TrEMBL record:
Compartments where located: Periplasm
Domain of life where this protein originates: Bacteria
Xref: PANTHER family: C4-DICARBOXYLATE-BINDING PROTEIN DCTB (PTHR33376:SF7), PTHR33376
GO terms, biological process: C4-dicarboxylate transport; transmembrane transport
GO cellular component, one term: outer membrane-bounded periplasmic space
Pfam families named in the record: DctP (PF03480)
Keyword annotations of the record: Periplasm, Signal, Transport
Family of the protein in this entry: Belongs to the bacterial solute-binding protein 7 family.
Main location group: periplasm
Signal peptide: 1-28
CDD domains in UniProt: PBP2_TRAP_SBP_like_1
Protein name: C4-dicarboxylate-binding protein DctP
């Protein structure tokens, strides 16, 4: 044995002793990082829900978990973020339920059917019950675990001309999320639907690539779409909500005690996010009105009835895509 080997051994032994006294626990305490990517502004129901989850998750785990939020498509756009989650480049997302079709889970498009929920209470019966749970389970074979449903709210239509009766949509180029139900909805109105990432909508409206779109007041206002849309119809014809999802391998690999704290943080963040969504959207609609750039039409009962009738064929058309059993199950639960 050479002197150098002996010296090296001595050094290793001394180092190990020092670590045992001071360093080892510190090494084990490197925080677990959850990258939470989303496409909307921080001051939206989803943005606020993400902030609340971060605050509670870090608090309940005493800093053993660190949540990094990347809003406004800063990291990934609509379709890319789902791929990034599956690859493990990010750990948590909350995509709109209208965006799971390209992943091969088209059942979530049931949430896009026009007029399927008469109000938030009807929706809750689905998302907070067995049906909602069953639907989240459809994500597991894709390596994704669904943790919760978060609300945004009911949609308005926006464009550069008034949209009073179904005929008014004839030939309008309307941006949609990547949902076949939304495609069928606009086709039924005689419009030309165009799938586009959320981050590209403002510019597409500004440059005339699209004439209009549908979204919640909160999304319209925080993306400044109202500045480039002269007309809106307060129609509440459909719903936008989110599935909060995580990379399943990451989630299953977490220490059990940590996962329990994160579940608790998610439950509370869900209650919080779903508690602010309605007021946020009402405030955003008022803010759009106050900005004075967009004329908001309040739909009458007769106009609504005409829209309902024009959009009725969408149910039949989408039956084979979503599954008749899923549509029936959701409708029954929403009663
Ligand atoms: C959209 O793409 O229109 C929205 O659903 C974005 C979002 O996440 O609310």
């Amino acid at each position: 044995m050479t002197l150098t080997t002996l010296t090296r051994r001595g050094l290793i032994a001394a180092g190990a002793a020092a670590l045992a006294l001071t360093g080892l626990p510190a090494l084990a305490q490197e925080p677990i990082v959850i990258k939470f990517s989303h496409v909307v502004a921080p001051n939206t129901p989803k943005g606020k829900g993400a902030e609340k989850f971060k605050e509670l998750a870090e608090q309940y785990t005493n800093g053993r978990v660190k949540v990094e939020i990347y809003p406004n498509s800063q990291l990934y756009k609509d379709k890319e973020e789902l791929e990034a989650l599956q690859l493990g480049s990010v750990q948590m997302l909350a995509p709109s339920l209208a965006k799971f079709g390209p992943l091969g889970v088209s059942a979530f498009e049931v949430f896009d059917l026009p007029y399927i929920f008469k109000d938030t209470a009807a929706l809750r019966k689905v998302t907070e019950g067995e049906v909602g749970e069953k639907m989240l389970a459809l994500l597991e074979p894709k390596g994704i675990k669904g943790l919760a449903y978060w609300d945004n709210g009911f949609k308005i239509m926006t464009a550069n001309r008034p949209m009073i009766m179904p005929d008014d949509f004839l030939g309008l180029k309307m941006r949609i999320q990547s949902s076949k139900v939304l495609e069928a909805q606009f086709a039924a109105l005689g419009a030309v639907p165009q799938v586009m990432a959320f981050s590209e909508v403002y510019q597409a409206m500004q440059t005339g690539v699209v004439d209009g779109s549908e979204n919640t007041p909160s999304n319209v206002y925080t993306q400044k779409m109202h500045e480039v849309q002269k007309h809106a119809t307060h129609s509440n014809h459909g719903y936008i909500g989110y599935a909060v999802i995580v990379n399943k391998a990451f989630w299953d690999g977490l220490p059990e005690d940590i996962r329990a704290e994160l579940d608790k943080a998610m439950d509370e963040a869900t209650t919080y996010a779903n508690g602010v969504s309605e007021a946020d959207n009402a405030a955003a609609l008022q803010a759009i009105r106050d900005a004075g750039t967009t004329e908001i039409h309040e739909q009458t009962e007769a106009e609504r009835a005409a829209w309902v009738e024009a959009l009725q064929p969408v149910y039949q058309q989408m039956e084979s895509r979503i599954g008749k059993d899923t549509i029936d199950m959701v409708r029954a639960a929403a009663q």
